[in-house]
Write a structure and sequence with these properties.
It contains four helices and six strands; from the N terminus they run αββαββββαα. With 139 residues, it is an alpha+beta fold. Strand 4 and strand 5 form a beta hairpin.
């Protein structure tokens, strides 16, 4: 099983941006109507601007971020296992990404463990996003 060529191209760009810790070109690979599903907040964050802001914020709070494994789940979906640290809390997690027909990120979901890592991530994200989080969800 493999990703579609368009999805594979966007995934390669995403992985390159993460490796360089430079998400400057993120908007070019995220669909206008994309959604971000947070491991600590509900409802999901809708729209390209929200998805990009959340991903950039997460990138800024993670330390020692490393992707370990990639699981292709069909022509439009991939799961990426990673580890990272937030302050003194280590975590393991999955980025679950679904691409649209044009190969743009349509849905980005994150699952995190253990609970101590999840709580540290939630607190760090809240500290950086603050009131913007509610606005991004339309609240």
């Amino acid at each position: 099983m493999s990703l579609s060529p368009a999805a594979a191209k966007s995934l390669a760009k995403w992985r390159d941006m993460v490796a360089k810790r430079d998400l400057t070109g993120l908007e070019a690979i995220v669909a206008e109507d994309a959604i971000f599903r947070s491991p600590v907040a509900y409802p999901p964050y809708p729209g390209r601007a929200a998805v990009c802001l959340v991903l950039r914020t997460a990138e800024s709070v993670f330390e020692d971020f490393v992707y370990h494994r990639e699981f292709v789940c069909g022509p439009d979906s991939v799961a990426l296992e990673f580890s990272a640290r937030v302050g003194d809390k280590k975590l393991k997690a999955m980025d679950i990404i679904r691409f649209n027909a044009a190969g743009l990120i349509q849905e980005f979901e994150v699952m995190v463990r253990p609970a101590t890592g999840l709580m540290a991530l939630g607190a760090a994200m809240q500290a950086k996003l603050g009131a913007a989080a509610a606005k991004l969800k339309g609240g």
